[in-house]
Amino acid sequence: MVQEPMQDHLIGTTVDGRYTVRSRLARGGMSTVYLATDQRLERDVALKVLHPHLANDPTFLERLSREAKAAASLSHPHIVGVLDQGEDGHIAYLVMEYVKGHTLRDTLGEQGPLPPRLALALIDPVIEGLAAAHRSGLIHRDVKPENVLIADDGRIKVGDFGLARAISANTSTGALIGTVAYLAPELVLGQPADARSDIYSAGIMLYEMLTGKQPYVGDSPIQVAYQHVNAVVGRPSDAAPGLAEDLDELVQWCTSVDAENRPVDGAALLTELRHIRTTLSDEELDRRQTAFRPPGSPAAAAATIQPGSSGSNPTEALAATVSPTEFISQQSNPTTVMAAGGPGRPPSAVVAPGNQMDARQPGKRELKRLERQESKDRARAAATPSRPLREGNPRRRGIIWTIVIVILATLAASAGWFFGMGPGSPGTIPDVKNKTVAEAQQLLRTAGFQSEPQDVFDDDILAGLAVGTEPKSGAEVRKFQPITLFVSKGAQLFPLPDLTGGTLDEAKIALNAAEMALGNVTETFDEKVPAGVVLSQDPVKGTEVRHGTPVALTVSKGPQPIPVPDVRGLAQDAAVKALQDAGLKAVIAPETVNDKAVPKGAVVSQVPANGTLIRGEAVTLTVSKGPKLVKVPSFIGKQAAEAEKELKKLGFKVEVNKVLGGFFGTVRDQNPVNTEVPEDSVVTLTVV
Known about the structure:
Low-confidence stretches: 1-5, 166-176, 291-392
CATH class of the largest domain: Mainly Alpha
Number of strands: 34
Radius of gyration: 43 Å
CATH topology of the largest domain: Transferase(Phosphotransferase), domain 1
CATH superfamily of the largest domain: Transferase(Phosphotransferase) domain 1
Strand order of the largest sheet: 1-2-3-4-6-5
Strand content: 15-25%
Number of domains: 6
Shape: elongated
Structural class: alpha+beta
Distance between the termini: 97 Å
């Protein structure tokens, strides 16, 4: 969490009479995120307050309202929910689900390159969330590790849907919104964004998860943006040797400069992602990398918890204005990438894709491409004669031209039939979801398509039924194009790991890695297992279940405390039995003590005297020897007053019997006399 030293005037206030701001979580280029309490529903929420220059723009606020409504309608377990949107005076805000935890950026900052198993497990819910958004017609535009939230209970969610899109729609054509390290080439060139733009950003993010660094770095955003347009993302295995070739192909498929060569949307990528996870070996999935990350690189920086926060890759607005900082300009030529210098300095370079005018020398790959292009140009020039080989006569030339025209007309007619009514004519792919294979293939044949079945796992479609097609239903394609028919193999089942014997936190990590959910957690006392250790799980280990299945855990609270009984005053045997019945151990102190109030053989004191102990722990008992014996001296013949005084000093009680009124005050007799009796005994004096 980023610590904000500056006092924020919103903290402690209530926005719109409902949301009490408690603390500031993060600040980004477009908004500030606060932790707030919804007073009406009594729950914590993330309150995103837009910066004043956006909040004061009516056109933008109208656009934001539409985008917020669209995002709020998207309910998915891997997407941060939009709960509310409104204005309070000069404050424009969004209310989102508060996800307590950390970001993927934090995980990358702590662990560096991730093992492929963990990287694929973490990005799977991200792609699933994007797939749901793409199905609803929503595009994220700012996919990056800072916007991937990992909750404390293991849930993974994608945040900040709609905001980047609303802002980009409200800025001029010369401005870009997004994080330059993950920005798709078409956005750099000013072209519209679609689902494939999110796929590109996700591919860059997967590259970073596998290697510990981003594929493109530079001293300024413009340098990074230039590489997105003019370079090809390298294979992850070049930066982290030992990675499987399938992972290289997956990353390069997602990060193709040409959007046509990428997966069409999140659903298409999710299918391939899960297929790769099932085909890689355990050794390939668990290979851990130690790729070098230069100090200060984006992959090495820490990040904040909430989306849009100012971290290593803040959401940047790259405006086409003269500024001391770098920007991306999209003027009359959208393919031109310009880097601006500081005040008083001219632009450092103007480079159009296809022209090699970079200030740096072209690399080997670029030189080879230039050599191949030059060779093609020479071959094309050599194949084009500068004059006819022979002049010929006009009649012959007329016959030749007639033949050429007939041939061209025939070819044109054939092409017209081929592309108009034949195999090259366009057709719309029918919806075959939940159809049998035979029914689906018949529907496709009726529409003029040939299909090739491919088995895939699907959690929702029964085994043997069609899941869909590639290209998707509703797409208009040429009939000669091959159509892939995806057939469900049913839900893919995975064995549950053994969660017992470890701590609750370790069990949560294991469940997250296995893509399972945490169910009810029950605590119980156990005399042998320390507190916090998992005793049992339901379902048990090895049970094959779907991803996302909740697993209930029983956790030890440690041995049950036992109240210490008070056995003082009881006979020794009775006290020992009472302690044993309570589950405690009695220890008799070796020394006995005199006590005039406690009879001999009874318990005088115990340690501890109260509180609680664990079963089997000891209570020390001290046993009484009874009252102390004191010898009674003889006071016969002495004055009664003196005798009574001395006897009381010795601890006796004195009882005086006067004979004839005790006129002389002389002790005539006493009982007992010249013997040992317990202290506090009664000595009777007979006085005459």
